[in-house]
Amino acid sequence: IVEGDVELRAEGEAAWPFDAGSVIGVLDANMLRPRSRTAVAVTDVIALETPMEEWREILEESPGFANATRSEIAKTLHDLVLDLAPDGGFAEPEPPDLDDPMVVEGTVVERLVALRRCRHFELASVQTLADLAARGSAVIKKRGETVSRPGNRDRVYLVLGGQVRAERRLAPLIEARFGPSDLVLGGSSLGGCMSEYAIIAESDCVLLELSRSDIDEVVEDHGELSLCIIRGMAIERDYVMRERGRRAERKATSPA
């Protein structure tokens, strides 16, 4: 949008407002789906139009642009997560069986299986996932041990086995849990927000540790990875925005 205000509307749901500088329709493009909402000009509007297929080609063929786009989407996603304190809108995983011995060891096969099951990587090719798995390292922690302390900006974690708890200890406070095949803090972790969180093992656990620079390097060789990651982040963003609308509606209709 170059000038003006636009709302994305869907029957029975709160409208999503956008103003100059915003990009509309990109959520659908990133999720590889048809448009799910109707764009309505609230004021006179001037906008630039790009076909969805061309947008995806740009992301796949321009690693630098794709990496910057991914980072910006992650930061925006984290802002939405903060709006949903104290749980960040993250789904609660099944509680771990604390009496069940950990059988995951962090092997290459286990890494590939977890990557394939994670929404951010599930559409990537086998070769792309193999390259990503090879660049990471296994982190093995006992229940109660610290996986990552606040200040870590570059490392992200994929849970291979067990469960971890993410804690944001400054306002707004966030506490969320993540289980097998979850990317800890979801796509927002790819924008540097890990620096604000402590990650604690809630059970014996094994995680795949990756650096954001490792992911950038794999994207340079496999441009499709950016599309896969951005698709996963778009799915998250769609859910979080809908959940924020639902919570706002419940708050507005609840007794004072």
Tell me the layout of helices and strands.
Layout: E1 6-9, E2 16-18, H1 26-30, E3 38-41, H2 52-61, H3 63-83, H4 108-117, H5 126-135, E4 137-141, E5 146-148, E6 155-161, E7 164-168, E8 174-178, E9 197-201, E10 205-211, H6 212-221, H7 224-253
Antiparallel strand pairs: 1-2, 1-3, 4-10, 5-9, 6-10, 7-8, 7-9
List keywords for this structure.
single chain, 256 residues, alpha+beta, 4-stranded antiparallel β-sheet, 3-stranded antiparallel β-sheet, 10 strands
Assembly type of the chains comes to single chain
Specify the number of helices: 7
Q: What overall geometry do the principal axes of the alpha carbons give?
A: globular
Between the first and last Cα atoms, what is the distance in angstroms? 38 Å
Helical amount: 25-40%
The helix/strand order is EEHEHHHHEEEEEEEHH
Kindly report the average pLDDT value.
Answer: 92
Largest sheet descriptor: 4 strands, antiparallel
Class per helix and strand makeup: alpha+beta
**Number of distinct beta strands:** 10
SS strand fraction: 15-25%
Radius of gyration: 19 Å
Uncertain spans, ≥5 residues at pLDDT below 50? Answer: none
What's the arrangement of strands in the largest beta sheet? 5-9-7-8
